[in-house]
Design brief:
The chain is mostly helical and 115 residues long. Helix content is 79%, strand content 0%. It contains three helices and no strands.
């Protein structure tokens, strides 16, 4: 086995390890965000669990809320939750793309010259 092949295999193993770690963090972030949204819709709008899940999931997915006739407190929560969801989508996209970009940098030998 050539030296270059073992380095390539090492990079591939590290890539998949990073992908699984980042995927787990992204999944945890989405799950936590969904739970916060469900709690908020249940607390402020007194929605049943399925309706609260639907509204939170639609906002987190970027589609917008299903129930639009909200109370004043519900409007504030929905607005803040929508802003939060926008940031979560950007963060999760970055988390999922980072290992691939890092692997691509190794593939084209775009390493740090100081290493």
């Amino acid at each position: 086995m050539k030296k270059g092949q073992s380095v390539s295999g090492r990079h591939r193993r590290l890539f998949w390890r990073r992908m699984f770690i980042h995927f787990g963090i992204a999944l945890g972030t989405l799950g936590f965000s969904l739970i916060v949204g469900i709690w908020g819709y249940q607390y402020y709008e007194h929605l049943p669990l399925r309706d609260a899940f639907l509204n939170a999931a639609m906002l987190l997915g970027g589609m917008g809320p299903v129930k639009t006739n909200l109370s004043e407190q519900g409007k504030v929560f929905a607005g803040l939750y929508a802003l939060y969801c926008g940031l979560v989508v950007i963060a999760v996209a970055g988390l999922l793309l980072a290992p691939g970009v890092h692997h691509l940098m190794h593939h084209v030998n775009w390493d740090d010259p100081h290493e």
